[in-house]
Amino acid sequence: MSEEIVFDCLHAEIVNYCLNNSKDQNDLGTLEYIGFTTGYRLIERLTRDVGRFKDELETMKFICTDFWTLIYKKQVDNLRTNNYGMYVVQDKAFRFLTRISPGSKQLEQAPKFVAFTCGLVRGALSNLGINSTVTAEVQTIPACRFHIEVNRG
Amino acid sequence: MAFCIAVIGKDNAPLYLATSDVERELDLQYHVHAALDVVEEKCVIGKGAPESKELYLGQLFSTENHKIYGFVTNSKIKFIVVIDSSNIALRENEVRAIFRNLHMLYTDAVCNPFYIPGEQLTFKKFDRAVQKLMSGNV
């Protein structure tokens, strides 16, 4: 438990640091980019002892199980796809949101706590050869949904 | 005794190349380049086949003087090792161990925040470790 809190605190500080340094409070680009580079490097290490991925879906499954477990200590609750390059990952208790109390005012602040993860997933997929766009959607805290759109061609 | 270890990036650009014999470096580089085609072939044809799950590709091809082995990571980084045909001390298992160590070194290098992915690997620490890997096996 005490080890896990360190990552939560670090994440909260990164969020504060990035947003206080930028002029626009809604500028999440820096956060997303930090996530991207982290994911890009991290996946290199995480896939070291894993066999080659057969296809896109297998890669996504890896992200939802192994990758998610290592970072958030739990698996995602649901992974859905339309088989045309659109994936929806649902986490009913997203780690960075579990410490925030539910409410409409808090909901406005939610985007800055999911931007890092969007980048993380995008970076990991990018290094595995999948070019994608990742967006997040928070309807009620602490549930979160990530939309991964694979850019083909 | 010739020995060569090369790291090739996603777009087939060389990231790192080390040889034990500087005079024959060019010749060894040709072998590495020739091996890339074989790597590509193995990765495409092997799709779906159960044995292709492994990152280690085995011996890619051999010439009169050299044996060339390959390894491709999940992120499409290629490792190529060229050894002398006369070198019988290195068997399949030893080559496997070299790749495993090299993979370990590479992942550590990528996690270095000063390394920009896709650039050449110029770290002294990485270089020293690879040289050690080579000298331990020649």
Automatic annotation (TrEMBL), chain A:
Gene3D superfamilies tied to this protein: Trafficking protein particle complex subunit 3
Main location: endoplasmic reticulum
GO BP terms, alphabetized: endoplasmic reticulum to Golgi vesicle-mediated transport; nervous system development
Listed SUPFAM superfamilies: Ligand-binding domain in the NO signalling and Golgi transport (SSF111126)
Record protein name field: Trafficking protein particle complex subunit 6B
Family in the record: Belongs to the TRAPP small subunits family. BET3 subfamily.
Keywords recorded for this protein, A-Z: Endoplasmic reticulum, Golgi apparatus, Neurogenesis
Organism: Drosophila navojoa
Biological function: Component of a transport protein particle (TRAPP) complex that may function in specific stages of inter-organelle traffic. Specifically involved in the early development of neural circuitry, likely by controlling the frequency and amplitude of intracellular calcium transients implicated in the regulation of neuron differentiation and survival.
The UniProt record lists the keyword DNA-binding: no
Source organism superkingdom: Eukaryota
Entry-linked InterPro entries: NO_sig/Golgi_transp_ligand-bd (IPR024096), TRAPP_component (IPR007194), TRAPPC6/Trs33 (IPR037992)
GO cellular component: cis-Golgi network; endoplasmic reticulum; trans-Golgi network; TRAPP complex
Annotated compartments: Endoplasmic reticulum; Golgi apparatus, cis-Golgi network
Coiled-coil residue windows: none
TrEMBL record, chain B:
One Pfam family, short name: Sedlin_N
Record keywords, A-Z: ER-Golgi transport, Transport
Record has RNA-binding as a keyword: no
Localization: Cytoplasm, Perinuclear region
A GO BP entry: endoplasmic reticulum to Golgi vesicle-mediated transport
Source taxon at top rank: Eukaryota
GO cellular component: perinuclear region of cytoplasm; TRAPPII protein complex; TRAPPIII protein complex
Broad class of the protein's primary localization: cytoplasm
Sequence similarity: Belongs to the TRAPP small subunits family. Sedlin subfamily.
Protein name, as recorded: Trafficking protein particle complex subunit 2-like protein
Species, as recorded: Drosophila mojavensis (Fruit fly)
Lineage: Eukaryota, Metazoa, Ecdysozoa, Arthropoda, Hexapoda
